[in-house]
Design a protein that fits this description.
Length: 193
């Protein structure tokens, strides 16, 4: 049976922090726009700030749909599934905000991630919970976690900040989404921290 929670309590926080992968879902306001669903990993790149707020590092890669959607309307859902241990699914429906490198809050937010921060971090997505639920997850299969993939961190770790900015400039769907919404502000502000 599903349960609605008023806050991210200690049990939910532990569950969220123990999962090696989570998913984000966003959509534009336009009825014919593209819904986006993204897997997120890399240990330590999500933090529970308080009982209503989470944040995760947004890294360079294939596109910037999540950024575009939260800039347009703020709607975001985060989901975690237990692939081992007792069955559980947690969803947080919230209001998302993209905090970019030139925002005065950047340094304080990025410090929350410690060693998980990396050269390809282009935004911090802050999510304020509006609805917090968990359900049984009985149909989620057992899967064995083998470890972190290091390819993303290694690839971008070889780039200077200027090279990363140039990478962002030439990629499709970074400055605008597939639906033409403003996404990552370019030119990408340099990292100061």
């Amino acid at each position: 049976m599903g349960k609605l929670h008023a806050r991210i309590d200690d049990r939910l926080r532990r569950f969220i922090e123990e999962q090696p992968v989570f998913f984000t879902a966003t959509a534009p306001l336009a009825g014919d726009g593209h819904v986006n669903l993204s897997p997120k990993g890399r240990a330590g790149t999500l933090v529970v700030i308080d009982d209503q707020t989470l944040a995760y590092l947004d890294f360079g890669g294939s596109g910037a749909e999540t950024i575009a959607h939260v800039r347009e309307n703020g709607r975001i859902t985060l989901m975690w599934c237990a692939f081992s241990g007792p069955p559980n699914i947690v969803r947080i429906h919230g209001e998302g905000e993209a905090v970019f490198r030139d925002d005065p809050r950047w340094a304080g937010l990025v410090a929350l991630f410690g060693d998980a921060d990396g050269p390809a971090a282009r935004a911090v997505i802050v999510v304020r919970a509006r609805r917090i639920t968990d359900v049984c997850g009985y149909a989620v299969p057992f899967m064995e976690y083998q470890g972190e993939r290091t390819l993303h961190a290694e690839y971008f770790g070889r780039k200077t900040d200027d090279e990363f900015a140039a990478y962002c400039e030439k990629k499709d769907f970074i400055a605008t989404s597939v639906d033409g919404l403003p996404a990552l502000p370019l030119p990408l502000p340099p990292r100061t921290v």
